[in-house]
Amino acid sequence: MFYNSSLLSPSPREDPMGGSFLEESSGEGGDSNILGGDSLVTGPLGAVLLVMCLTGMVGNIYTVAVASGRVAGCSAGSLGVYMMNLALADLLYLSTIPFVVCTYFAHDWFFGDVGCRLLLSLDLLTMHASIFLLTAMSLERYWAVAKPLWARRASNAYRKLASAVLWLLSLLLTAPMMVMTQLREGDSPHKRICIPTWTPSAFRLYLTVLFSTSVLAPGTVLAIVYTRLAWAYRSSAWGLGLPVAGRAPARRLLSRISAIVVAYWVCFLPFWAWQLARLYQGEGLGISPAAQAYLNFGVTCLAYGNSCVNPFLYTLLASSYRG
Name one Pfam family in it (predicted). Predict the structure, then answer.
């Protein structure tokens, strides 16, 4: 993951997060054996992440192929454009796994200063792109119910432009991490680590802003959208006197879009809770270094797992929507 993982060390001027995996595994301090090469955690974690990478890559490549074909054939409506962009975001996110696994096992960073900046930024970029695209897809679904005439006039060109703007916004939020991260040499040639160069207080502020832009703000918008959607579906179905069977397709589509959103929260909320807890509490957590390592591994796997589950959810979503 982009912060407390094998890829990034806290600023040497202060250690607000209690150290990174790389620092703990490089042989410093009395806890170096916790995450050493013979650890019972490192091997299984690497294996799990590589399986996730392979599974997720195959699923998302399939999704991109299917969605791009539907967009070209104009048979997927709004979903094709958004599904293709969501799958591309998942592919970019999964592409960081081999670098993470290599760093876990080697206890060193081999990919240079550019690698530090790009790989850490990819995590942030894809995280924001995914939730922004999910929010856009949910908003369009709401407009299809609340303003059907406007929704029918919206073209795929408009959706492509909206997706491009959302990617650009994600990139702008990512830019500070790209600019302010550098590769530093440690106490020995085998301790190269990626370090944020700003002050700890500025870094806390930045991560808090990212939490707001990737969780709080989209979460608020989505909560409003889905509340209004549920009410709109219910009101329109009852107002038209539709039987339960007649309401099923709309309800099924709504439930499958919401399943993708829920999967995002389930996979990323533990990650953010863990990052913010360590960011603001530090040593006050009262958790042993070993327990912290296990928690970090757990939230890392959970976050990557989102990109593995998504292709199945996209397939279900596409099967419930035509036009």
Answer: 7tm_1
